[in-house]
Amino acid sequence: xxxxxKALCMAILWNMLVSVxxxxxxxxxxxxxxxxxxxxxxxxxxxxxxxxxxxAPQDEAEGLELRRQQLAEKEAALAAKEQExxxxxxxxxxxxxxxxxxxxxxxxxLSAKRKTEAxxxxxxxxxxxxxxxxxxxxxxxxLVDKLDEDIAIDFLDRMDQKTAxxxxxxxxxxxxxxxxxENLQVR
Length: 187
Known about the structure:
Blueprint: H1 2-21, H2 23-33, H3 45-134, H4 137-146, H5 149-158, H6 161-167, H7 173-186
């Protein structure tokens, strides 16, 4: 019983030495002290247990080294993925900027087109208003009555007050009433 306890104590001490100093340092100190370093000499129960416990730390060290290598590989793979994600993010950001620039150009173009159309429409209305001004009020009223209601009301809105006053008695009265109501509601 005492021999087993002694062997067990030796194994524990060996593990402690290996964990503190490392395997190679302990083997060097054994060699300097004249102890067998695992050579071909006869083994006593103490050296046999020491040899078994020496393999365990070596296996543990190899396992730790393998684990460290696996972690390093995973870290490298993660870094590569991170770089790939950065590139994709930069590409997406550039594409978003490009889309926003295109959108702004289209909005500006559309705005300019609307402005041009409004100016042309205004010019056409002005031309037509001048024409209606030159006609007799009865003739102008007949033409305005033939227009769609929305166009006729818009036309009356753009007309100067003097011309509108001359036309009103000759226009379709429900249309005039609607025009008056719309003008009163807006204000």
